[in-house]
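Lab notebook page, bench 4
Experiment: in silico fold of construct C2
Operator: M.H.
Input chain length: 638 residues
Purpose: comparison with the prior construct
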Amino acid sequence: MKLIIDKNAGFCFGVKRAVESVIKTARASADLDIYTYGPLIHNKQVIEKLSANNIKVAEEINENFDRNSLLVIRSHGIPEYKYEEIKSNNINYLDCTCPYVSNIHKIVKKHFLEDFKIFIIGDKNHPEVIGINGWCNNSAVIVDDEKIVDKLPNYDKICLVAQTTITKELWNKVVNEVLKKYSNVEVFNTICSATEKRQSSAEEISKNVDCMLVIGSRESSNTNKLFSICKKFCSNTYHIETAAELPLDKLIVFNTIGITAGASTPEWIIKEVISKMDELMMEDQEKMMEEYEKSMKSLYPGETVTGTVIMVTDDEVMVNIGYKSDGIIKKEDYTWETELPLKSLVKPGDDIEVKVVSINDGEGNVVLSKKLVDAEKNWYKIEYAYNEKTPVEGYVKEIVRGGGIVEIFGIRAFMPASQFELRFTDDLTKYVNTKVKAMVLEYDKEKKKVVLSRKDFLKIEKEKLETETWGKIEAGQKVEGEVKRIADFGVFVDIGGVDGLIHISELSWNRVKHPSSVVKVGQKVEVVVLSIDKDKKKISLGLKQTVADPWSLVGEKYNAGDILTVTVLRFADFGAFVEIEPGVDGLVHISQISDKRIAKPADVLKLGEIVKAKLMEIKPEEKKISLSIKEANSEVSE
């Protein structure tokens, strides 16, 4: 049995301050008659302890209090008019109102004087809420359920505060409804930070234990809220006031027990509960040791045993195998489907057959393997795959000299380096911890020998894909492919187990110096099937056909007489070719380059130079455009 103690349990700042202040005052002033205005806190054990120190409870302000009397205002606070009553009767008092509560009083009074309607989220009968309401002339709207907000009348402006001990869940629900209905709202989250922390930590613990103990008075609002929160997440939740109420006969069966306590629960009560639980744990351990001794048996590595699953996590399975220590199965020793969550494969209560790998993993646990047991039963699967020529699936566990070790059905098999790919690869490390499919090349159960070939599997798959592709491919189709190889004259693309060639001239509407400037090996591309020769197993592909031919729009975009900005691309003896736009070239005849007579275009122009040229003639159907730099310069100079 394991105890998990909430570090935020017990007295909050305000309660601790009030109790310590009263006791300190009582000890320092033995001649004073000390009264608390109502119970100092909601815990009868604390009240009984205060009474034993001659600290009494006054339900009303007594006009007969004399000079030897001291009235203590409890941590819940009181209405404003009660202070006036105390002062008008000249009563000595000690104000132990929690500072968090006093702050709410200030907020409420300020906004009430500014004509805000005060909304208090909390219990209308709780002394803290009664006190807060007393700072706005008892005119506040008390909200204890978000459902009543829609039924409230309209208000011009609202100030929204909360009882310090309400749950964050109630606060959020009410705030959402108020903001939906009203437009002018000032929201003050006055839930005590200690309350929020206590509720949050109690919730977190309750989600991860078998049983939850909530210690505190049944009259305590914050303790009751703690109980509700814990009960929501842990069905085995018990509310107790003292250690005497511990349901020991019920607690003995739980492995993990969480303990929290309300803000008005003193430390000594919490310690009593923990001490009692420690005694229970000792008794439980002694009984368990006796049972362990009775049931203890011998275990040996390699032995096959049957156990019962007692816990499953994301990474391992814990199994009761009737030994003095529980057994642990790591995920990788339980299943080959490591991508699947363990909790989907096994659950507590399942009986499983396992093999003992080691008696002690260094932490006292027995190391088990389910896969080793399964492996002994799985040789028939390998025999079937070998005889029927069907593929098997496994994981590459490690790379060794000459190849790799592949685990299939829990059996170690060898795959030679030459059998990993269709073409030999000298880097096998990339396959470690990956799933592969392969064919069984050799099989000998007696010698525990299995040899695999992924290459043969890939060949079969490639042949299937080739047959399928040749059966459906047609000229004019657009298909997806992957660039496999680049040559000076073009690019080879795999379009489904079949390689097609994109000639360099079919890569782009622009002039291409080398295919590598357009595509890269491994790149995914969309291509058009230009022609098919099934007899010779040849396919011609086009990449540029997937976009519009820029010459198809030239007639609409340009007209004779246009002055264009062009780039000098290349020279010929008879003139210079210039780029008008990507894929569209034009010719400036040597006679149209300059007013002066020149021997060759390079005397005046440079490759890559940007110049102005006048469009003289356009023939889109012949893909010819004539231009004149001379004419363009003449028009600019005019």
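Observations: The longest strand covers residues 435-444. The chain has a mean pLDDT of 86.
Next step: discuss at group meeting.
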